[in-house]
Amino acid sequence: MLALAGALSACTAASPPAPPTVEPVASETAAAEPSRILIGAETTDVVDEGGTVLLSLRYSENGDEAVAAVIDLLGEPEATHHQDGSNHYPEMDGTSWGGFDVVVNRYRSERPSTDAAIPYLPAFSVQATAATTAGGMAIASVDGTSVGDDFDAVSAGQDANRVHVDDLFGVRSVALNLPTSFPGIVVDPGIDMAYGVIGQADQGSSTITKIVAPSFLFSQA
Questions:
Q1: Residue 11: what pLDDT?
Q2: Fewer beta carbons under 10 A from the terminal one: N or C of the chain?
Q3: Looking at the domain assignment, is residue 23 inside a domain?
Q4: Most confident of the ranges 12-16, 106-110, 200-204
Q5: Contact 195, 184 (CB under 8 A)
Q6: How many CB atoms lie within 10 A of CB 9?
Q7: Residue 118: what pLDDT?
Q8: Is 15 within the bounds of a domain?
Q9: Cα 169 vs. chain centroid, distance in angstroms?
């Protein structure tokens, strides 16, 4: 009897077999897709559906590198264009994704380079001429204004130094966003000049026809 009890005790004390090991399967996370282009006074950002910044283009940094970065994210451009320089504007090379352009400034070597002037001499600028790119990506100023919005509604309530009507060309302009790291209102003798994201309405248009940044309020560039 003792031998039998010992055998039974040994059986009940034995550990149950370990469950089979299951290897975890790595979940595939989809890469974030660009959803919107947001034009600000110091940077233009490409963001995903949730607002996460996928690409930030700072106007003070290399323009050719900015173009290359946009190509990597948005794909090949629709067109390129060149504009010769003048006494008022540098030579410019533009790259367009249909409704959204990056324009690289080619300054002459003798351009002013004082600390005060540098913020107003961007390496490149951006322009929106439609509410979406050719590929259907939304484009807007950081304040929410898009090409096609009513100019009077956008400019209503703005300070007088942030709205301008050009009597010669018939172009109306409104400052949509000003920089924060340097002055967005440049005081010249007898005039306050806004600088940042500018919305323009062409002659005869009741709506915003172009958004450009960075630019002066009075600029026709």
A1: 44
A2: N
A3: no
A4: 200-204
A5: yes
A6: 9
A7: 79
A8: no
A9: 28
Contact 120, 195 (CB under 8 A): yes
Do 6 and 13 contact (CB within 8 A), yes or no?
A: no
Query: Given a cut of 80, is residue 143 above it in pLDDT?
Result: yes
Both tokens assigned to 81: 């264009």
Is residue 19 one of the residues assigned to a domain? no
CA angle, 34 as apex, 29 and 36 as ends, to 5°?
Answer: 140
Which residue(s) pair with 73 in the sheet? Answer: none
Angle at 192 between CA 155 and CA 39, to 5 degrees: 50
Tens digits of residue pLDDT in 79-104: 999 999 988 889 999 999 999 999 99
Q: Is the peptide bond before 214 cis (omega within 30 degrees of 0)?
A: yes
Name the phi and psi angles at 38, rounded to 5. Answer: -115, 120
Predicted local confidence at residue 8, as pLDDT:
39
How confident is the prediction for the chain on average, in pLDDT?
A: 87
Assign residue 110 a region (left: φ > 0; alpha: ψ between -120 and 50; beta: otherwise): alpha
Which CATH number fits the domain that encloses residue 154?
2.60.460
Residue 22, domain member (yes or no): no
Enclosing domain of residue 93 = 36-216
